[in-house]
Amino acid sequence: MNNNNSFLMYALKRSKNYLLNNLNYYYSGINSSKPNVFIFVFTKKCNFRCTHCDIWKEKNFGDEISLDDWKKAATNIFNWVGPFIASITGGEAFLRKDLFEFADFLKDKCIELKLNTNGSLINERIAKRLSKSPFKTFIFSLYSLSNHTNDKLRGIKGSYKKTLRAINLMNKYCEKYGFKKKMCIAVLITKYNLLELSKIVIWAKTMNVKVILQPLLKNFDTDFESDWIDRSKLWPNDRELIHQIFKEIIHMKKNGFPISNDISQLEMMKNYYLRNKEEVLKHKCKVGVDNITIYQDGNIKFCSLANNIGNIKNNSISKIWKSITAKEERQTLFDCKKDCRVHPCYYDKPLKAKINGFISEYKN
Ligand code: SF4
Ligand code: SF4
Fold it and tell me: Which of 39, 52, 56, when mutated, tests ligand 1's pocket best, judged by the most ligand atoms within 8 Å of its CB?
């Protein structure tokens, strides 16, 4: 079967899942379908010190599961759902030495393999290898085109230069070896870069990379506190500016600039930053329905704020997904009133945006 056919089969399967999910879950809170997207938190170790993240502050993550455990989990997923979308993330995934070996193992199991990285450890040798690897999509986190602002947000001097070097190297080697990869930058919106968002999008176009705008959430790996926004040093409070910037961004999106978020998500994000929570809650959260996260210690959760529903060392993912614990957790999340659904990983696109996404993936 050629790539186009397998993608078509995948799109049909995903559409069936989508319909089942909607019918079963959104109207009854019951889920009888299968997840489409698997997020692998390959390690929690990180060499950056981002202001909006507490992962790096943790001293003891416990034991990480072995490569064999990851392979077993991936085989289990493949036997259960067929080819799947996997997103490898961290921490910083390159801090595990077996990343390439895992990617090679996933080659025939994934319809799309994505890598989230801060890019700091990508040198000539690694870029060369990555350009030939099974990874199809690279998501580099880059928060500003100003050395100073980026480094301040990432907590590491020189981080801007390192991430930029990684993007340039990947472009260079993909072009040299003729491999077509999707390159993206994930830009976290804070009060320090709000004013330069459109400049970043214009720059991204010249670099042939897509921009994924990400909302500021409460610090990763901290407990949820309802007043975290009031205490945040990064939250933009200028409502007029928020209106103006999102108007510009939405205009750019409509005019074909490479912004990955769809328009309804951009509108939702604007409302999120304006703190119109009621508007945000009108959107569905796809957590518990469409995606599942496996952590570095083998624990499984529907989202970072949810409870553990099992561990891959004790059970198969399919059994965990269908378990009573998962069912109960889903019921709890079904009534969730938090607004972190605004994040691209959790936000459930309207059907029209999903179809457009499929078409553009199919064309690529
Ligand atoms: S946000 Fe990512 S890169 Fe930054 S410290 Fe946290 S895990 Fe590391
Ligand atoms: S809104 Fe946030 S906390 Fe609630 S289920 Fe979705 S991702 Fe989890």
Answer: 56
Per-residue pLDDT of the chain (364 residues; tens, 9 = 90+): 455 666 667 667 666 666 666 665 555 555 557 888 899 999 999 999 999 998 888 877 778 999 999 999 999 999 999 999 999 999 999 999 999 999 999 999 999 999 999 999 999 999 999 999 999 999 999 999 999 999 999 999 999 999 999 999 999 999 998 888 999 999 999 999 999 999 999 999 999 999 999 999 988 767 778 899 999 999 999 999 999 999 999 999 999 999 999 999 999 999 999 999 999 999 888 888 888 999 999 999 999 889 999 999 999 999 999 999 998 998 888 889 999 999 998 887 777 776 666 666 555 5
Domain boundaries, the chain: 3-363
Q: Which atom of ligand 1 is the closest one to the Cα of 141?
A: 3
Tell me how far apart the terminal alpha carbons of the chain are, to the nearest angstrom: 17
| C-alpha 141 to ligand 1 mean position (Å) | 9
Question: Residues 6 or more apart from 231 whose CB is under 8 A from it?
Answer: none
Q: Which two tokens stand for residue 98?
A: 């077996």
Burial 291-319 (b: 16+ CB within 10 A, else e): bbbbbbbbbbbbbbbbeebbbbeebbbee
Q: For ligand 1, is residue 139 a contact (CB within 6 Å)?
A: no
* 243-274 per-residue burial string, b: 16 or more CB within 10 A, e: under 16: eebbeebbebbeeebbbbbbeebbbbbbbbbe
CATH number given to 3-363: 3.20.20.70
Q: Residue 360 corresponds to which tokens in the numbers above?
A: 């553009």
